[in-house]
Amino acid sequence: MLDRFGARIMLRLGMFVWSVAQLFGDFVTTLQQFLVARIALGIGEALQFPAGAKVVSEWFTQRERGKPTDIFVTSSTIGPARSHRFLPCSCFRSDGEYVHHHGRAGDCGVD
């Protein structure tokens, strides 16, 4: 698919699928909905990594590829590593109801 449609289209499609799956993950109420959202999230992520590598290989010379590749790969690990500090702050719906997520609620002042 990457060679057929190109890296730009696949990156856009991957980001769109990933973003929609993230959005739907907030509204799940059953295990089946959760599994569908997580599978869609995985599909969106699976589209992005090969396309990102292709973009780096096409847009940069072999000598320049180290830093862009480092930024691309590192960002995928730093985001999840840092999100545990901010996730608890999203534990409340607009009506004030607490929603349990993974993370520590004490990080945002909730005891």
Write the layout of secondary structure elements.
Layout: H1 2-5, H2 7-25, H3 31-59, H4 66-83
Helix pairs in contact: 2-3
Short structural description:
This protein is mostly helical and 111 residues long.
- By DSSP (H or I, 4+ residues per run), the number of helices equals 4
Mean pLDDT: 75
The largest β sheet comes out as:
none
State the total count of DSSP E strands. 0
In total, the number of domains comes to 1
Approximate shape: flat
Cα-atom radius of gyration: 17 Å
Contiguous runs where pLDDT drops below 50 for at least 5 residues: 101-111
The run of helices and strands is HHHH
Report how far the terminal alpha carbons are from each other: 49 Å
Approximate strand percentage: under 5%
Q: Helicity level, as a percent range?
A: 55-70%
Helix vs. strand class:
mainly alpha
Domain Major facilitator superfamily (MFS) profile: 1-111
Keywords: Membrane, Transmembrane, Transmembrane helix, Transport
Membrane topology: Multi-pass membrane protein
Main location: membrane
Question: Would you write up a description of this structure?
Answer:
This is D-galactonate transporter. InterPro entries: MFS, MFS_dom, MFS_trans_sf. It comes from Candidatus Burkholderia pumila. 63% of the residues lie in helices and 0% in strands. The protein has 111 residues and is mostly helical. The chain has one domain (2-108). The chain is flat, with a radius of gyration of 17 Å.
Q: Which short descriptors sum up this protein?
A:
63% helix, single chain, 111 residues, 4 helices
